[in-house]
Amino acid sequence: MSKSSAPDPFKLALEYFQTPQNYFWRWTEEGALAEWQNGTTICYREELEAVLHTLVPAGLPPLGAVLLLLAVCADTWSASGGRAVLEAVSQRVRYGREADKLDFYLTTFSKFAEVVQGLPRELRTGPPKLHLFREVLQPEPVGKKMRPLALVQGVAQARSQQALHLWTSGKLDASLRVTGSLITLEVFLADLQCLDRALQRFPMPGSLDHHLRTGLPEAPAPLPAPELPTPAEPEPPRSLLDQLAEDPRTAGLAHLTQRLVASLRIPPHTHQASEKPLGGVADITNQGSYDRLLLSELAQDDALLLARLVNGEALYLRREAPPLPEVRPRVVLLDSTLRMWGVPRVFALAAALAWVQPARQPRRQAPATAYALGGQEMTLLDLTSLDGVVEALSQLDVAPHGGPALRQFAQMPAAATDCLLITEAQLLQLPEFAAALTEAKTALRYLLTVDRSGELQLFEYQQGRRTLLSTTRHDLDVLHQAPRRPARRPGHPAAPAFLHRDSAPLFFPAAGVRLSIKNTFYVPELGVVSISDTRRVLYWADKDIGAEELLPVIEPGDYYFGTDSEGICVLVSNRTQLLIYGFSLSGEPVRVDLSSELEAADAQPSVVFKDGSYYVRQPSGTLVFDCMQWKIWERTTTTFPTNTNTAFRADFGHLKRHVNNGYSVLQRVRRMAVNAERELVLDGHTLRLVDSSTSPTLQLVQTPFDKALPNIQVEEEVAGLTPNNQVRFRRVAWPNGSTALVDSRGLLHLRSTDAALPEVTIVLVLGQATAAWASDGTVCGSMYFTGAAPTPSAPVGEFYHRYLRPLIEQLR
């Protein structure tokens, strides 16, 4: 725009501040005061100036709107007569097509006046009032820009500061004494529309109040209450023996310790007859049994005695409480010299663990300290933790015996302790050690000797004399034969006991398995590996046994199988990942992530398995991963195998017979019930003990669905019980609190409300005998799911009546 076409600043300012003829307001007292046409004051010049200075940065809105807002902020609004003045103005300008809008905007102005008047006085007076004007008369957003609330009688942002300066400097005062042009409907509507937009933003007093205080138009809605899981009872801390039993290094030691706990008996600490303060009277009380009434009470007449008994006034004798058994600290000296190496060392350590077990003092715990007795000195041992026990096994001394260290212990200050020395039986015949033992007899209370044959002898020292208390013999072969106890795997608190095992106690049925060249691999020497619809890696070693779950979930993608005749490898390839799994079929799977080696983004490379290695073709060359040495052999070789023939030839008829010996799996259950014969009914199938020519079997027998039974509907799915979110669990809850989980892998987990009853897991197969497992480790049923020689196992009939029948009775 050229300078000649630019509006005159003086004229622009005058048009803004000049009073229109016949409008609701006017200047008086030479521009120092703005008042209604009826003579009531609206505001003083200083107040208006402060408001306009606040609004200048965004552009000046119509002056009539500013004055209306000033009027409704005042405490005198109701008595000002402003509504009548506005009605009179509306009658004068009511013409044209827009006339019908006046009534609407006057009504909305009255509503907005009530909103402003409903504010606390401190928000519409003084300095906080300036914030009110900024929020109510702020520009209207248009996209990313802002425009003034009304274009009529307003001043744009670029010229608002100059117009305000001309007014505050007094240069307009002479001109403002003369009224401007006649008021028009357009100007009146522009003023009212500014406040109408404010009413749309803040329709209630509370919304404007909240916005002025917090900057938000309304209080945020409360967040939905989170669905917190039911807090599970914390698992009791595992005992040291449980930890030892789960570790392969100490499983045999734990098994032997448990046997020794039952065989070792610590004699109680005896007292002289006069040391026990028994038989005395401790106090007199007004409560007790009639045989302890004071004799003086019996001298009362019958009525008085009865009254004293009823009113609790009769006096009784209170006997002394017997003293608690004396608990003395224990010290264990564990010989670690040359003769104790090998099996006696483990035998002695098991005896020490059995001796210090807290269960041997059920009421009051006796503090116990253990030392490794070397040739010249003693070393403190920690027999309260797994790491401490493993460390104790490594404490060995090359000295022929521990006589000097024993003499050193005997010279230590005497304390009231029960000291136990554990050493090798043949050392008692060695003169040097026997002499040291004689000197230390006053410091010892017990002597425990071990022998390579498994014999254990316990002696007690009393008044300097050694007495044989007991002799036991134990089979030390348990050190090599004791199986490692499966570790209890931490998981979801609602998960059944079956899922807390390190390895599944039963073999799985073939649920969700669709054999194809893309997800199945067969090696005659090893068996079949297949990836199910839910991405579980399953393995069948033989056609006469069920599936073992090698991996609960594998990443999605294309699968490439290979073998080195000792195990099976699986390469997973997708757009962002390159992973290789190795399954040795006898241990934990191993995994290597080669995703960082991928060069082309969002593109799956070509993969070939040949001669024990994976070849992955990439833009810069071929990546070679050697599965024998389990490392990358080459990254940029130019050779890529072509026309390679896979070792796997799909004979799906043979494979189907290998992974499934003729059963089907019941994966969906909608209703459960207990029939009149006290049998569990699942939809149209009944879990029944079936007599056969050889022995009873447990089967799911197809039966007509009985609508008269009180069926329990299967409830919502329970998520998060396994790492594989595609494995579904649907919950069934009985009114008494007992529950069942239908496992989509073809299992049913039953849990009674009675904590004394073990949980039971049943394989849901149709067409042949099934199997079951109880949470105490007992299994029964078809060897296809239990294995050839499960331990411990029970006959089907005994298992049914011991575990299943009581649980079903609870459901009734």
Automatic annotation (TrEMBL):
Residues 210-240 are annotated as: Disordered. Residues 219-234 have a biased composition (Pro residues). It holds the Pfam family bpX1. Residues 39-208, 730-811 form the MoxR-vWA-beta-propeller ternary system domain. This is Uncharacterized protein. It comes from Hymenobacter defluvii.
